[in-house]
Amino acid sequence: MDEQAKKAGVSALIGMGSSPGVANVLVRFCVDSLLDQVESVDIYHAHGGEQIEGAAVVKHRIHSMKMGIPMFLNGQFTTVKLFEESGRALEEDTEFQNVGTYRVYAYPHPETITLPRYLKGVKRVTNLGLVLPPAYAELIKGTVRLGVTDEAPIEVQGQKVPPLEFAVAFILAQRRRLMKEAGITEPMGCLKIVVKGYKDGGWNTYVFSMSSRGQGMGEGTGIPAAIGTMMMATGKITEKGVLPPEACVNPVDLLELAKTRVKAAAGRGFPITVEHIDKDGNSQTLNLFG
Fold first, then answer.
1. Are 278 and 202 in contact (CB under 8 A)?
2. What does the alpha-carbon distance between residue 104 and residue 138 come to, in Å, rounded to a whole number?
3. Contact status, residue 219 vs residue 265, Cβ threshold 8 Å
4. What angle do CA 184, 187, 189 make, to 5 degrees?
5. What is the residue-averaged pLDDT of the chain?
6. Spatial separation of the C-alpha atoms in residues 104 and 96, rounded to whole Å
7. How far, in Å, CA of 87 to CA of 131, rounded?
8. pLDDT value at position 215?
9. DSSP designation for 150
10. Vertex 182 angle, CA 178 and 185, to 5°
């Protein structure tokens, strides 16, 4: 509805959570302020431990595992399949701040579609993720891999049950046990964005991390959405149309609001850390709010 919104003079900022959302804005920050040319963007996320997980969430994950997953590789838009070589080639072990190291896999998120539209010359944009604990993720993957959700109605205690509903009920019935076995007792998660490119002819890497424990999606999604609302209400979003965050959110405005308005868990404010690795391999932690 982008054209209709433009004609009506409407600004619609969509996907303003953590990923998509803050991830897009931090990439824009690299383009505007840190690098001369962004070559690659790799977005990683691991999260889990919410007290309740609804059936719609599991159905979404099943759908995400079965579909062609959008990626931007070698300067071209493409799709990969999770259980085929195209998807397996992207899997990697990733360290998440305050959460641990986990193997992540191809995940369908809009950043891989929208970021290449606004980043001139970018060669790669990926999104890889995992739901915690890993055993829970593997249960969902195994259910999809076996084709349980594609079968004819299943007879359970004399009644015909749609296979998807049966699979979701079974998965959710195992969730609490798998969380207990993994020692996960609270919501936890981390979003990690790795941006690589050139500055003054040298290769540089920026690694952004947003980690959370005890707050979960309330902190990771709620706070960015609130900041987006504040920006909209105070006239900071002026572009018209249906827009992803990198197209209309000024990174400096977002960081200023995060610095002055956000009082998150334990009084630590907006939980962003950034590591800079220069062309010589030297690493230093930067203060985004300085």
1. yes
2. 11
3. yes
4. 100
5. 91
6. 11
7. 17
8. 65
9. G
10. 90
Q: How far apart are CA 228 and CA 13, in angstroms?
A: 8
Which residue blocks in the chain are alpha helix, DSSP H? 2-8, 22-29, 55-66, 85-88, 111-118, 134-145, 163-182, 217-220, 222-233, 245-248, 251-261
Model pLDDT, residue 269: 62
Closest Cα to residue 124, out of 35, 28, 41? Answer: 41
List Cα–Cα distances, 232 to 228, 229, 238, in angstroms. 6, 5, 8
Helix (H) or strand (E) holding 101: strand 100-106
> Whole-angstrom Cα distance, residue 268 to residue 271?
7
The fraction of the chain above a pLDDT of 90, given in percent, is: 76
Rounded distance between C-alpha atoms, residue 154 and residue 166, angstroms: 8
Tell me the one-letter amino acid at 116: P
Q: Tell me the chain's radius of gyration from C-alpha atoms.
A: 20
pLDDT grade, residue 265 (50/70/90)? very low
| 75-96 as b/e: b if 16+ CB within 10 A | eeeeebebeeebbeebeeebeb
* CATH number reported for the structural domain that contains residue 27 in this entry: 3.30.360.10
pLDDT at 217: 59
Number of domains the chain is built from: 1
**Full residue range of the structural domain in which residue 203 is found:** 2-286
Tokens of 73: 């590789």
CB 241 within 8 A of CB 11: yes
* pTM summary value: 0.92
Distances (CA, A) of 64 to 56, 68, 111, 187: 12, 8, 15, 22
Q: Phi then psi for 148, rounded to 5 degrees?
A: -60, -40
In the block, residue with structure tokens 């296979």: 163
Q: Which residue, chain included where needed, has tokens 């009084």?
A: 267
Q: What is the mean pLDDT of residues 86-109?
A: 96
Structure tokens at 243: 């827009």
As given in the structure block, the two tokens for residue 235 are 């006239």
